[in-house]
Design brief:
Blueprint: H1 2-10, H2 18-29, H3 35-45, H4 47-51, E1 60-66, H5 68-79, H6 87-106, H7 109-112, E2 116-118, H8 123-131, E3 139-141, E4 151-158
Parallel strand pairs: 1-2, 1-4, 2-3
Helix pairs in contact: 1-3, 2-3, 5-6, 5-8
Amino acid sequence: MQKVLQQLLREQVSIRDLGTILETLVETAANNKNPVLLVEAARHSLGRALIRPLLDENGKLRVVTLDGAIEEECARSTSQSSQMIAGGAMQISVARRVLDGLRAMLGDQVAIAPPVLLCSSPGRFYLRRVLEPFIPKIVVISPSEIPPMTQVMSLGSVR
């Protein structure tokens, strides 16, 4: 539980609604003890509270989407052991592709006002971890965290 709370705080997620987080962890931990999946479950249960601060003045969520190949690579990386031999090279490859794509799309604004990236879970966790050293305030959300009636506007796609 401590690792999950630490990761939520690391991602700048409020843990004020501890009741919801604990309830989700109890339900999820019965089936799976993987900390990454527990973090993802907690984020999913906090969806509305996660998304509200990211909405623009018109109530729209502006996101940058990722090419399917990048999302697949992130998903594969989370499903494989963290001890894999090519892990470092894969992390650098993904980080470089995403950073280059963001810079091409948004220029130097990436460092000043990082965009919200949309990436399926559990690849979201991996992508956030890989990008964090380069863009510490990066926000990576999963589609499952977005409340149903939220209007989503894509700013473009990183390829």
